[in-house]
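Quick log. Single chain, no ligands specified.
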Amino acid sequence: MELSKREHFVLAAVVGVFLRTGQAVASRQIAERPGQRLSAASIRNVMARLEERGMLSRPHPSSGCVPTDPGLRSFLDAYLPQRRPSAALRRDVEDRFQAANPELIEDMEWVARLTADLTREAGVVVRPMGEAPVMEAMTLVALGGARVLGIVVTIDGWVGKRVATLSMPGRSVDLQALSQRATSRFRGLDFVQACDLLNDRTEGIGDFAGWERELLLDLFSHEKDGEVLVIGAENLIEHEAFAEVGRIRSVVRVLEDRPGLAIEWRRVLRSESTRVLLGSESTLTAGGNLGMVATLFYQGERAAGAVGIVGPRRMDYGRIVQVVECIGETLSKYLEPQRSEVAQ
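-> predicted structure:
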């Protein structure tokens, strides 16, 4: 929706005050800002037009205005592309990466914790990206007794690990042969497709014994959403925006819905490298009045995963988007040498 220069100015002023205070904004608060030349009457007229266009709303008839989701979205779309991480922020993030050893940087839990620490929101990492992880290879390793470690590598380079249990303990099994057969049969399929085939014995899966199907189903069904790490949930619970018990419960539900987070982030990052979701724009953010910021990180030219945050709808988007993008860009740089080494 096209806005005039005056409407953009008033909308930006309302959003700025609202994000800072959380309170409805009156026309006089904008009129009193230093350097602006509009009268209070002109500002009221512009705010009325923005209300008619669905950009602002009034919590009460006699109160000031707050931005609606479309209003906040219009502001973010116009404002955020102009903001890039500052030199000071880049140095801070680079220093943290340099202080960490390579093994720690590969640990996505460390990345999620770094994001939570720098934003004071809940840090999230999702990988791999794409509609569903597609298998490249599988390795099965005996751990003793009936336990088996399944290592699944996807075409995106993500490595998933899970311990499964043999349904027939004590049976002599050739896990190396089973690994080779599973890799040959399921390479190029996503985990959902693999599960569908394993559940349908008529689709060329007759060469797998019943216990083999159970073992593979256990591995594939638990890995189909990939890896979703959430660190720093306490940052949200301590936030003033979630003082009400009902809102705390909604935040907990969202953070516990790891498959939902993976699906939503993969959906919104199909066509853009960074996305902001807020309020009613997503089923995950609507119920708890939440906001999410996510950006892709890469290994070479390939999107390897996404890093970002879940926070309140009223957050400092300008700062948080810069932090998230800076972490994503720095992580991509540090993953590049590892990609080259693997290729060799």
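Confidence is low (pLDDT under 50) at residues 338-344.
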